[in-house]
Amino acid sequence: MLKASTYEDLxxxxxxxxxxxxxxxxxxxxxxxxxxxxxxxxxxxxEFLSALKEKKINRIINTHYHEDHTGNNxxxxxxxxxxxxxxxxxxxxxxxxxxxxxxxxQKHIWNYPEGSxxxxxxxxxxIGPYQFQVIHVHGHSAGHxxxxxxxxxxLFTGDMFCGVKNIYLRRDExxxxxxxxxxxLSKLKIDTLFCSLKGAIANGGQALSEKVKYMKNLRGKxxxxxxxxxxxxxIRNKLLGREDMMFFITGGHFSKxxxxxxxxxxxxxxxxxx
Length: 274
Ligand SMILES: [Zn+2]
Description:
Distance between the termini: 51 Å
Bound molecules: zinc ion
Radius of gyration: 19 Å
Helix content: 25-40%
Shape: globular
């Protein structure tokens, strides 16, 4: 399934694997001038190529190497001879996607991308009349970048935002690192945020500040309850509830308990709690 829409000079492609009439998860790719920001899932590859038919694409920028952001790199690079830019730490995985072991649910929803050839992105990138700052961010994956255009006040966040109130953490994420990067991003002047999961978000700066506030508040509550003697399991039940479908569908990849444990075990918080 693929739907295209426009936002000022951008074309936004929302896509996902259709299972019958059901699309379990959407991801967005963004076309600005001759540059695609992320390439979505390989399951929507044929539709995506058809939607891009009249377009001229010279470059792909990957916010990070995850399979739902690089799924059509190979197809598009082959067809358009496009260069691919990504953070240097993402490049080994973009070249050899099977070096990352996907879980069952990931194979069903996105599958392994084919390898493609990327080069390291610099600190700034010019796309037509737009000048983007490349910001290295932490906590979601290695080699994750956000792209900021200070004149338009646009921020492309890859998977760093994904909604204000997240109650799960992925097994390979780090809560404190994400919070620290998000806090830095929230200091930028932002009008519109472009999120891989949610698409274009107006008042993006406010949404980002709300997310930072929510995360700090949640961390504070978790640490207070821990100091008051509650176990990690009791804290989860009190603040986030029991594990739910998300845990079971993803084979435990997204977990409420992991969020609590990750906060309690981080070095920074250890120093605060002890
Ligand atoms: Zn990701």
